[in-house]
Amino acid sequence: MTANNITEIAFQIILYAGNGKSNAMEAIQEAKEGNFAKSDDLIEAAGEELNKAHDYQTKLLQGEANGEESPLNLMLVHSQDHLMTSMTVRDLAVELVEIYRNK
Questions:
Q1: What is the predicted pLDDT for the residue at 69?
Q2: What is the pLDDT of residues 7-17, one digit of tens each?
Q3: Any residues with CB less than 8 A from the CB of 10 and at least 6 apart, and which?
Q4: Tens-place pLDDT, residues 3-39
Q5: Residue 2: what pLDDT?
Q6: Residues marked as catalytic
Q7: Which has the closest alpha carbon to 57: 82, 33, 38, 94?
Q8: Spatial CB neighbours of 25, under 8 Å, sequence gap ≥ 6
Q9: Which residues are within 8 A (CB) of 70 and not within 5 positions of it... i.e. 6 or more apart?
C-alpha cells in the first residue's frame, strides 16, 4: 500500500469518526432536553458512522496480517487516535443518555 493510499484511508477514518463523535455529543444534548427519541436516533447514527471508520481500520489490519507493508505516517496515527477517542465518547454518551432518561 502506498503512502497516498494510507493517507486517504486515514482521512476516511477521521471523517467517519468525527461524524460519530458529533452525533454522540448531540445525543447527550438532546437527552439533556428530554428528547430521548432523537437522542436514541443520534446514538444509533453515531454507531453507524463509527462502524464505517472501523471498517477502514479493519482493512488496514487485514492487509498487514496478509503481509502487506503499510508505511506509517502521522496522519494514520492521528486517525487511530481520533477513532478510539470517538468510540469512547459514544460509549460515554450511551451512559449519559441513560442517566438523563432515568432522572
A1: 85
A2: 999 999 999 99
A3: 73, 75, 76, 78, 79
A4: 889 999 999 999 999 999 999 999 999 999 999 999 9
A5: 85
A6: 78
A7: 82
A8: 89, 93
A9: 1, 6, 60, 63, 64, 76
As a whole number, the mean pLDDT across the chain is: 95
Cα–Cα distance between 75 and 90 in angstroms, integer?
Answer: 22
For residue 85 the three cell numbers come to 477517542
Residue at grid coordinates 428530554: 34
| 102 phi, psi to nearest 5 deg | -95, 5
Cell 469518526 -> residue: 17
Question: Is 90 within 8 Å of 26 (Cβ atoms)?
Answer: no
Q: Which amino acid is at 59?
A: K
* Dihedral, CA of residue 21, residue 10, residue 54 and residue 85, to nearest 10: -40
